[in-house]
Design a protein that fits this description.
Helix content is 42%, strand content 18%. It contains ten helices and ten strands. Helix 5 runs parallel beside helix 7 and helix 8 runs parallel beside helix 9. It binds 5'-O-[(R)-(carboxyoxy)(hydroxy)phosphoryl]adenosine (KG4) and zinc ion (ZN).
Length: 341
Amino acid sequence: MDGCRSDPFRLVLGIETSCDETAAAVVAGGKSILSNVIASQVPLHQVYGGVVPEIASRNHLEQVNLVIWEALQQAGVTLKELQGVAVTCGPGLVGALLVGVSTAKGLAYGAKLPLVGINHMEGHLMATMFLEVAPAPPALALLVSGGHTELISWEEDGSFVRLGATKDDAAGEALDKFARVLGLGYPGGPALERLSLTGDPRSYSLPTTSLPQTLDFSFSGVKSAAVRLWQQSQGLGEPLDLPSLAACYQRAIVGALVEKTAAALQATGHKRLLVAGGVAANSSLRLQLKELCAKREVELYIPPIALCTDNAAMIAAAGYRRLSRGERAPLALNAYPRMVL
Ligand code: KG4
Ligand code: ZN
């Protein structure tokens, strides 16, 4: 077991229920994953083509205690041996968040443990703490998930400054929505990525909105153009090459992410780049950012694919840092669906 025994927050339990994964993890010293249990609701939502909030909350309620118990079992620790509890308190679906927050409050109160509330997006960023060489600020962060697409400057003092964000759909949302139109199921990002592998990414021209002079993104234009192209082809009975359409769509979205990240590196002069969130699992994005960073002599920190999508180990890692800085959440801690970083 890693981590110094004199560390007052050596063992932190993380709890995550902001969307469609019920997750709990035990992390030692903010760096070593002892357990990382995820009960995915994906099959439940798949029939609807996206997450149904009410179903998500109900399922979190059914799963959360089992998942926590499993995380403690796998880590080989009891509740009494923990030194803190960290829980995602926003942003996310309010009913889903409330399940995790109420559970964490009950556990912390009952076991007399310090409690800390974590912003889900900060959690995603802190998944980079599990890399062999963990990053330190100052750095640029590209956060790309199903609900968020943001460029953040992680300042020397640990604070976050938002440099740009999407004006409409998040990158993951744009991938999910188009995949749904194509009948590829949910989540769409991985499905489009698989389909793209055999396609030609240059066969169809799709417009991208570049919002010049800003570090903001817009994905609704390319989404509408791709949907229109698909619907026209269906109407005319002239089938398109699906893998190529998927590849062109993915190329447009990844291209926009890479282009704005390059501009943000240029504007800030940051020499470290962190990439996190579900879309950071995308191989094409990973590869292009690797090439960009090599060219610019920037250090790149991307978590392993399994830690890019929602999990509770990242919440425990973020919690460890906040608890160590003396932060505590009161038992009045609430769910904050629109919480900003
Ligand atoms: O971070 P995450 O697990 O949940 C949110 O906080 O939203 O991100 C989920 C998003 C979904 O939109 C999903 O389609 C996308 O991440 N995603 C991917 C890949 N894996 C997950 N997008 C592109 N390529 C992937 N391999
Ligand atoms: Zn997430």
